[in-house]
Each structure stands twice: as C-alpha cells, then as structure tokens.
Amino acid sequence: MNGLEIVDLKESNFLQKILRREPRENAFFEINNLLASVPILELDKASIDSRLEKYGVSKEDARSRLNNMYSIILAHFVKDWELTNRQRKSLAHLQHLLSLDRQEISSINSSTIFPIYRNYVRERLSDGDISNEEKQRIEQLSDQLGLPKGFAREIYSVEASKYLHSVLKLSLSDGMLSDGEEMELDKIARGLGVKLEFDADAKGNLDRCRYLWKLHIGELPEIQPPIRLPKKEKCFGYVKAVHYEVSRKKVPVKYSGFDILPREHQVAFHAGSIGSVVARAETKRLLDKGILYFNGTRLFFKGNLASSQFHYKNLIGGTFYLNGLLVEQIRGRDQFFKFSGDLQAIKLIFDALMTKSRS
Length: 359
Fold this sequence. Notes:
Blueprint: H1 14-18, H2 25-37, H3 45-54, H4 59-77, H5 85-97, H6 102-124, H7 132-144, H8 149-171, H9 179-192, H10 200-216, E1 235-254, E2 257-261, E3 266-270, E4 273-295, E5 298-303, E6 307-311, E7 315-321, E8 324-329, E9 335-338, H11 343-357
Antiparallel strand pairs: 1-4, 1-9, 2-3, 4-5, 5-6, 7-8, 8-9
Helix pairs in contact: 2-3, 4-5, 4-6, 6-7, 6-8, 8-9, 10-11
C-alpha cells in the first residue's frame, strides 16, 4: 500500500540484548510498516511520534528517513500522471504526520513531481504538433499535481523552446536556412506559443545561413568591388589569392620488390622499370599575388604584376580544396588560386556563375 512494502524488524544483537535495547533502525521499519498497511488518513501524529520515542530516535535524526518515505509515497501517487482528491488529502495529512516543513516539501516536489511533469510535457512536444486539447491536458496535469502556475508555465516554456531549437538545429545541418524551413519554424513556434530568441552571435549565424541559401538557389547579391569594372559587369565576391599555373607530365614508375605469385603461392622478386606504368606528376609555378574577383561572366585576377581573366564558358569546371580553387580550362593550362576564408560561400558563388554561363 502507498508504494511501501512490509519489512521485517531487525533482531537485537548480543550487546543490545544485555542492555535491553532494541535496534534504532526498527523505529523506521515500524513506521514504514504502518504506512504500508494502514490508509494514511486513518493515522494520527501520535502513531508516528510514539515509535520514534520508543526507540530513542529524535525528530532531527529521523528527518532524512521520513523525507524519503514521503518521497516514495508521493512518487507512487503520481506515477500515472494524476493526483486524486483523496491522494491530495493523504499527502497533506502525511506532511503533518511526518512534521515536514515547507522547504522540505518543496525540495521533495522538485525531485519527484517536477521531473514527471517535465517528461509529460516533452512527450506531448515530441512531434512539434500540439493541439489545443493537448495544451489543456498539460494545464490539467499541472493543476492535478499541485504545481504553482508560474512554475508550470516556466517548465513548458523551457521545454517548448528546447524542442524548437532542436528543429532549428536540424534545419541548419547543411549550413543553410531556406525560406520554407523558416516558415515551418515560425509555424511550429506559433503552435507552441513560444518565440525563438537569439543572442547577437546566433543572429549573425542565422543571417549567414540565409545568405548561403540564396547563393545555393542562384540568387547572388551584387557587391561593390574595390576596383572599377566595366559598366555592365557585376561582381558577386572577391578574395585575396595567390595565383599558380599548373603543369602536368607523365613520369615512368620504377617497380621493384617482393611479390606473391597467385598460382604457386610463392614469393618472387621483381627489379627494373615497367615502361607501361606511368604516373602524372603535377607542379605549380607561382605567377602572382593579388585579388580574385568572381564577376558575372568571368573570373578576374588583379595581380600585383599583371591581370588575367578566365571566362566561365571557356572552363571545364573547378575543384575546391581546403586551401583554394583549381580552375580547369578547355584550352591551356589549369590555374590554381590559393586563398582562405568562407570557402562554402565562395564555392556556392562559383557554382552559380558556372551554371548561369551554361544556361
């Protein structure tokens, strides 16, 4: 009954028998058995106090054990996410029987009732689509559990915000935030009745994700470059870069060493050169340092020594590396531009301009 089980009393040891004393532990065993076998509302305070006095246990020494009993009974009552009127009365009476003060009651509620309510809220929010009926159930549960209105609202607000941020994190997993994703987030936020709030850094990151999405769908915002361009030419990005010319040649590969013959499972040794096996050796020749501009119809490199341009229509494509961009030309040697910065944005700009040049 009440979430407690009957336990056997502890027998006195040899010394206790000589001194005619009983184990102090039995005070709590008797109180436990009393609460486990008799309805709480039928007990009086004397039935608890008398057992403590019988075994010489002060109320101060008994405090932690009695608090634990109250916690067990409370958890048993609310295990089905509901407190009946009789259970409420029983808990109030039990608080009196065990001489619990407000601080102790609040502490036990925090460790027992609040997690139950929090888990219930999380379960209702698990799919992000919470109906008015479910909201009412949440409010009813907070009333049934006797939670303070303000505290219950705070728990709901915190959990709803956590869920909303988890959806946002999933939306930003590719580093971009589309208009559709933002509309869906706004819809979920309105349904939950919460707002997404961000600090300055988070707002800056969101703006970048929106910007990357615009680049991804080919909406390139024009920027003002630090050089004068022809009137009709637009610039969409630029970066400081080091310009290299790439050359490749075939080099014969020498092979020597041990090998296993597949049929005989024997070891053989080869020596010499195998002329039919070649590898491509790549070298880079430094040309210049300057600024690489991503313009509407061409890549334009403004170097310290000279300028060069590469029209997108004359390119096979480009390969991005962690330290820059390899430009592959239909005719002529490939070019490599070494730079650092926002590679993701630069790649999206280059890809969009290449796509437009072929449309």
